[in-house]
Amino acid sequence: MASLLPEVHPDYADIGDIGVIAADGPLKEALCVIDASGLIVMTESGHGRRPREDLMRAFKVG
Predict the structure, then answer these.
(1) In terms of CB atoms within 10 Å, which of 5, 10, 50, 58 comes out highest?
(2) Do residues 20 and 5 make contact, with C-beta atoms less than 8 angstroms apart?
(3) pLDDT tens digits, residue range 19-32?
(4) What residue stretches are annotated with the DUF6950 domain (predicted)?
(5) In order of start, what are the domains of the chain with their CATH numbers?
């Protein structure tokens, strides 16, 4: 993401921006979408939610 979008501090991420959270798996990180009440993440059974406090990095989309 860092090569495609400008990075902002997670505190300044807006709705629709892309974030990075810690995750299980070989990469140890996963992408998420920031919304008004937290983070939208993909899970093995569909989409899920995580608290905004889990956001490690954020990237501006527009």
Answers:
(1) 58
(2) no
(3) 999 998 888 999 99
(4) 2-61
(5) 7-59 (2.30.30)
CB 22 within 8 A of CB 56: yes
Interatomic CA distance for residues 22 and 30, integer angstroms: 6
3-class DSSP assignment, residue 17: coil
The label of the residue with tokens 């899970």 reads: 43
**Banded pLDDT at 62 (limits 50, 70, 90):** confident
| Cα 26 from chain centre | 18
Question: Which residue has 């956001």 as its token pair?
Answer: 55
Task: Label residues 12-29 b or e (16+ Cβ within 10 Å = b).
Answer: ebeeebbbbbebeeeeee
Contact indicator for 14, 34 with CB cutoff of 8 Å: yes
CA 31 from chain centre, in angstroms, equals 5
